[in-house]
Structure formats: C-alpha cells, structure tokens
Amino acid sequence: MTAEQGTPIQGVTLYSFTRAFHAREYDLDQLIRKTATEGFGPGLEIIGFSSFRGFPEIDDHFAGRFSDLIDEVGLVRTSLAVNADIGLRPDKLMDQDELIAYMRRQIAAAAKLGFPIARVQISLTPDSMEALAPIAEEYGVTLALEVHADQYASHPRILALRDRYEQLGSPFLGFTMDWGATVSGFAPSLIEAYRRRGASEELLAAVVALWDEYYEQGPPADQADHGQRFGRFIGLGHQYGRPDLGIDFGINGTGLFGPARVDDWLEIMPWVRHAHGKFFGIDENGQEPSVPVSDLITLLVTNGYSGAVSSEYEGWHWNHWQSPFEIIRAEQAIQRTAAESAGSRMITDAAEARRAIDAHLSHAVRA
Amino acid sequence: MIPDRIIEQGTLRARGGRAAVEVRLPWYRALPASCIAAAKLTIDGAQAPAESLRWEMNGEEFTFADMKTNTAQWWFPTDSAVLSGDLAVDAGEHEVRVDLELYIPYIIIADDQVLHIEEHDTKTMSVRQDEEAYA
Known about the structure:
The complex is a heterodimer.
Chain A (H helix, E strand, L loop, with lengths): L8 E5 L4 H5 L5 H10 L5 E5 H4 L8 H14 L2 E6 L14 H18 L3 E4 L5 H14 L2 E6 L8 H13 L4 E6 L9 H9 L4 H17 L5 H17 L6 H10 L16 E8 L13 H10 L5 E6 L10 H18 L8 H12 L6
Parallel strand pairs in A: 1-2, 1-8, 2-3, 3-4, 4-5, 5-6, 6-7, 7-8
Chain B lengths: L12 E3 L2 E7 L6 E2 L3 E8 L2 E2 L6 E4 L2 E3 L1 H4 L6 E2 L4 E7 L6 E18 L2 E14 L1 E2 L6
Parallel strand pairs in B: 1-12
Antiparallel strand pairs in B: 1-2, 2-9, 3-8, 4-5, 4-10, 6-7, 6-9, 10-11
C-alpha cells in the first residue's frame, strides 16, 4: 500500500461513442473536438483499428495533423488500444514470430501517434510479453495488458503474467484494469433492452437471479467453469421459449459482467498502468447501478494511482435510446465525487495530466 | 453487435439478373477480408446461389474464396461494402435479408479456433433498376 494518495486522470475512450461514429454522425476529428469541448478529457484513448483507416500504417502527414489537432484542443493522449489478431487468417493462426512482428507494427504506430501506452490483450502469453518488452522499450511505449471479464486480477492466467513481469522488472510492462471484471449486478439497461425485444418478466428475473448466483460464488475458477456458466445462460433462453436470446445472455452475462470483488485488483495493483472505467449506464438517480464506480475510484486513490481512467461506456451495444455523451458526463461526475470523498481529486487539467502520466509511467516495479 | 446497421436502407439495385445491396460492418473495428467468412443475400425469400455471390470493398470485387487468404484489404467501420448475387428482382418494394459470418481475429476460443459470429438484418425497400453496370 502506498502512503501517498493518488490523483487519477479523467478521460474517455472514443469506443464509448462507437454508435455515433459508425453511423457517420461524427468523424474522428469531430469526435475529438466534441470530447474536448464537453470536458470529457483531458485523457484520450483511441482504438487503432476502429478510428484510423489503414491502421497500423500511419503516414507522416496524418500523424502530424493528428498531433496538431490534439494540441489545439488541449487533450492528452493516454492509451492506444491495439489488438493481438492471432486469427488474422482464421484457417492458419499466427505463430509467435508472426505475432511479435504484427504487434511491433502497432507499437510503432502508438509511438508515431504520440500515445505513451498501448493496450494489449489476453491472448498474449507471458512469453509473448517477454519478447515484446525490448520492442516496447525501443519505442518508449508501455504495454498494458487488459484484464477483462471473464478474467480478473487473481485469475491464474493474469497471475502468471504478473509473476513474469515481476521476474523481468521491465518498466514497460503492466496491466490495464477493466472495471467490467468487478461488476456488482446484471446491467438494468440491458434487461430493459431484452424487455423491448419481447422477453418475458419471468425470463428476465431468471437471468438476473442466475447472474446473482454467480456473484455470490465469485468469478469462475477456470475456463471450464466459465464455459459451464455460459451454458447455463444459454439454457435459460431455451427454458423460457427464447432460444434466440440465449447466446446473448451468455456473452454478456459472463464476458461483460465479471463478478469479482473490487479488492481482487490488489493482486496486481502495483502493475496497473492504465484503467478502463467500464460501465453500462446511468439510472434515474444519476448512479451507475451495476458497476461500483465509487469503490473503484476509492481503491485507485488509496493505492496511490495517478494514471489515467478512460471512461468506457459499453451500454451502446443495446442502448439506442439514450445519448452516450450525457451518460459519459454523468459517470465522470461520479468519479470526481468519489475521488473527493476519498480525500483526493481527479486531474482534469491537461498540463497537470501530462506531468502525472509521465511520472506514473517512469518507474519500474522491482521485485 | 450492431446488426440493425448491416443493410443500408434504400441501396437495393438490380440489373441483368443480378441484385446488389450496400452492407455495413456490424462490429466496432476494421476487419480484414480474411475474416469475412461468408454471406447470404435473400430477396423476398429467394436466396442468391452461393457461387454467384461477389463482395465489393475498397473499389475491388472479390469472391469469398478470394477473400479467405486476403489480409491486405480491410473493411473499415464507416465504409459500405457491396454484396451482389444472381437474383432477378422486379420493380417495387422488396424484403431484403443479408446474413454475414465474420471471424473476430483477436478472440481465440480454443487452441486453434477463432471466435466466429453470425449476424443478419432484414429491411424492406424499393429496388432501383440500373442501366449502368454496378460491378
């Protein structure tokens, strides 16, 4: 436990606005300007393959223009989300050398676009992360592997990564905590979406009850346990005459709403370099009913975390009736209030955010 | 993920026994041609023969067999692709259904298996009879 309190940096990932971008309501420049104008920054996270045409190839002209825009609007680049596309050829998965070469191009793109962190994913093994460490160092980009439901901090795969990090002692390896691993309820807005698709109240109650049962049990012990849970969600669809919804219950019930407890993050806290403030909606009281946002911010503050929190609204998958911009604004207000209640604050000034992220990423975790 | 966006409303065209419709990616990030596994085009319940299907993307036309190994061409989330196939379509309103099978290349579900998703969309629209070739 660090004695000094943290001051997390407020920010957003443009993933939250996927529906608006996909609908061509906002192009990339417009979304960046909107993010700045609305005060959703200063932190800005972008998914390479979502927002940059031709990614990971980034030409000099584009990189220059992008940088100018970020400076003009006063945002701070935090994380570029990159993908370990091992199945780029689904008939012939990448071998380790191909994967490392594929990741190198994306790490180079992160550097060229000015992002200090590249968010990487669970399909990278400890051996892959070890092989990528010198590449990360070469480009000065920290690799923050995302801990996302159905995994969680104390999952054996995550602990194996942590142990390797500890052994390697590289300042360029760490984790992204995704709050979806520590959810406290099945999102009510998704229940409402199923209701609008004609699901019966009995079925919806059964889905919520099954999720609550898993919450009581805690997260799945391993992939077999995860598979079994997935199967039971599918079973509910059949049992209540809506087999078309079963897979959706399974995907969301296990892959979006992870039932670990907030303090599970302590297992990897010293290696957390970035956070996805994952959430699913805001209720009529201005609260996030299924993600313990305040507890998560308190955890970060009390553990001395002064890295970025990208608000990541995922309710857009199903919620087509509410504005994602209003929802982001409300979630960030909860974050700020929680940080203040914990005796600290969120950083909202760009210059201060730049200094904080430099300091946050500058030190290695030594065993 | 966003299957309601697959078919672009009002884009059904027909010419010389073939029909075409513009389609959007029902996913949040670009996917390479190699991950666009298959599609079906059905109009008023009649399905275009699989071997007649063509996929136009980034100004080039492909068969699904061509795409299987193509990792150079990418379907960007804001771009429309064009799915076409052998189907005779009369003037007037038609019910168009598109089924898509995609691979999600970063989600590995077993040692040698990539997540595979099936999405579909149905919309009703008038056809535009084209004098010009759309290919």
